[in-house]
Design goal:
Blueprint (H helix, E strand, L loop, with lengths): L15 E2 L2 E2 L5 E10 L5 E10 L2 E9 L8 H11 L7 E7 L4 H5 L23 H12 L6 E6 L7 E7 L4 H10 L3 E4 L7 H7 L4 E7 L6 H17 L14 E3 L12 E4 L12 E6 L5 E6 L2
Parallel strand pairs: 5-6, 5-7, 7-10, 8-9, 9-11
Antiparallel strand pairs: 1-2, 3-4, 4-6, 8-10, 12-13, 13-14
Cofactor: Zn(2+)
Protein name: Succinylglutamate desuccinylase/Aspartoacylase catalytic domain-containing protein
Pfam families: AstE_AspA_cat
Length: 298
């Protein structure tokens, strides 16, 4: 049986966002100061808050927690720019770029090489990463009931759209299944990661991994926008039917498969293809095109 973690304390008010009053039915851009750069310049993140007239859950959607993973920025910006998109109940907190210093450097990491996504819940007197994490956690996560964090693969890789979450938490499972991609990976996430610590604090959160770094890929953006709307429909924040995939599988364990020899990899399939046992996946060839070995589906 799944479990749902209880929120340890009531969430912070949705009316007051750092001095900005946001009434029911209003949408407003606000910003949150999260730190200071080495040159003593203020570091703030830009936030779009969209409130419905009726009460309901509060959901955050974040992009670029790793600054080079920007497909999520494209999806969130598309929602912000769509004047016809309005939640019917609750509130949506849209943050295209969560990690501004890394985003400006086109980097996964902060200037001190720390990973913000390994720094939560943070501390008020720690490193730049720890202080940023502390402010984000206390001022955003603790205002919200649910979260969606958008990622891509890291450098020189691509990810087929996949949702990851701790499915032992029944509310996380609910979000993961509703998002509507074919593949769900069941894991808690690394220690001190954003989604793991958000869940520990009583804010069920999933991540979606899709595409490559340094790109806004239309197909991935479309999948993310559809998935966000699906989750909002599941939470009764948005009217309409959930768009479900043709199939959905849960992966409990994954592993890297690495080549035993150097060479060129010739792929016989593409991401998302359904394969049968014994089907060739990849052939490793020499520089002159001679076959060395082939990987087959098990």
């Amino acid at each position: 049986m799944g479990t749902t973690m209880n929120r340890p304390a009531p969430r912070k008010s949705m009316f007051d966002w750092f001095g900005e009053k946001i009434e029911p039915g209003e949408s407003r851009n606000v910003h949150l100061v999260v730190g200071e750069s080495y040159s003593s310049m203020t570091v703030d993140i830009q936030i779009h808050v969209r409130r419905a007239q009726e009460d309901g859950p509060v959901v955050f959607v974040t992009g670029a927690l790793h600054g080079d993973e920007i497909n999520g920025c494209g999806a969130i910006r598309q929602l912000i720019q769509d004047d016809t998109f309005q939640v019917q109940r609750g509130a949506l907190v849209l943050i295209p770029v969560l990690n501004l210093p890394a985003f400006e450097r086109h980097s996964r990491y902060l200037p001190d090489r720390r990973d913000l996504n390994r720094s939560f819940p943070g501390s008020v007197d720690g490193s730049l990463a720890s202080r940023m994490a502390f402010t984000i956690f206390n001022e955003i996560v603790k205002r919200c009931d649910y979260g969606i964090d958008l990622h891509t693969a890291s450098v020189r890789r691509t990810n087929y759209p996949t949702v990851r979450g701790d499915l032992t938490n029944s509310e996380v499972r609910r979000l993961a299944e509703a998002f509507g991609v074919e593949i769900i990976m069941n894991n808690k996430g690394p220690k001190n990661s954003f989604r793991r610590e958000a869940c520990n604090a009583g804010c069920p959160t999933i991540i979606m991994e899709g595409g490559e770094v340094w790109k806004v890929e239309p197909g991935i953006v479309e999948t993310e926008v559809r998935g966000i709307k699906n989750v909002l429909r599941e939470l009764n924040m948005l009217d309409g039917e959930i768009e479900s995939p043709a199939y959905q599988i849960v992966i409990e364990k994954s592993k890297w498969i690495r080549s035993e020899r150097g060479g060129f990899l010739d792929f016989h399939i593409k991401p998302g293809d359904i394969v049968k046992k014994g089907q060739p996946i990849i052939t490793n060839t020499t520089l002159l095109g001679e076959s060395q070995d082939t990987l087959y589906a098990l």
